[in-house]
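anyone seen this seq b4? input:
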Amino acid sequence: MPQKPLVYIIKDIKLDEFLLETLAIRSGYERTHEQENSEAIFPTSSFVYESAQQAADRFSGEVPGNVYSRFTNPTVRTFEKRLAAMEGGEACVATASGMAAILATFMGLLSHGDHIVSSSSIFGTTKVLFTKYLAKFGIEVSFVPQTDHQAWCSAIQSNTKALFLETPSNPLTEIADIGYLAELSKSHNALLIVDNCFCTPILQQPLKLGADIVIHSATKFIDGQGRCLGGAVIGSEKLVGEEVRGVIRTAGPSMSPFNAWVFIKGLETLHVRMEAHCLRAHKLALWLSEHPAVEKVFYPGLESHPQYALAQQQQTAGGALVSFRIKGGREQAWSVIDATQMLSITANLGDVKTSITHPATTTHCRVAAEERLATGITDNLVRVSVGLENLADIQADLQRGLDQLI
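predicted toks r here
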């Protein structure tokens, strides 16, 4: 479906003529009569009407306007418009978290008896959502290796309605060929849904590569400082603006106005932050690959990465996540983590503060051990979300534990 051009006007300037960095700062906002320069926050649950007729028209949808902050709030709307402009989508729906965005997408677009083909290299909680909760509503899921094209083809059934993946994956940074999967999904009348949390629209724009829907956990890089929970779904007006928004309106996993305002501010600096994250991550990956206590490094910006060439085509940089295997097992991996003094031992990522975690016992602990091993999440795997501290300090903190293993 051809996408309608997005046009947001401030002082009669058409922002669709501007580039991504400008859209991140200027798009999607209409100043109030106070003529504020920074976007306003509207912390209100409801809105008043000039008459009973106007209230009736708003509630029926015959006249656009604010109804109730569960699904119409000016601050949330600004965030939605801005992120839609950056991703190149017609519509965006903001949610209370990244997981709420995934849930709302499938609740809005799938029905009992439908089937999903999903990459096996997805966030552990997403896998639990699919196998434990969507299964209760009669939605089936088949998992396939992210980079195995034949497996994707073989898994598609007559009732397959969606293909789902994260690229790069968490934590092994596997890169999926979005263009190939877009063609495959369209040939089977299915939707391609891409979680773009780790790249953000700064590094990758899946809709332009053929995807139908993009999902974000705004909690991560969009916020950038670990302050708020939020999510977003971007796509066409029909799929997202109507169907997914209908779930938000009815079921209520809504983004708060305050969180939306924080994310708006996050978008303004997203470009410079992602550049800085990627620069440090690439240098850290090179340094780790030469350390004698490290068995293997996973980073799309390294030529040793199995999908390096594809990453060069789809992404503008390698991203901020670096994972590596320690020579040894869980005891050695934990010893490296525990030896750090500055890095934050936390499962969150996308923060200006560098974080370190042990995926097998945190983010993917609810995934069966055999499934973890099948997707490469071994006990000696460590994940680092590279922040914005001085790189020498990040390296020195990791070196405390790594040098103990030599």
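The radius of gyration is 22 Å. Residues 1-12 have pLDDT under 50 and may be disordered. kinda curious what u guys think
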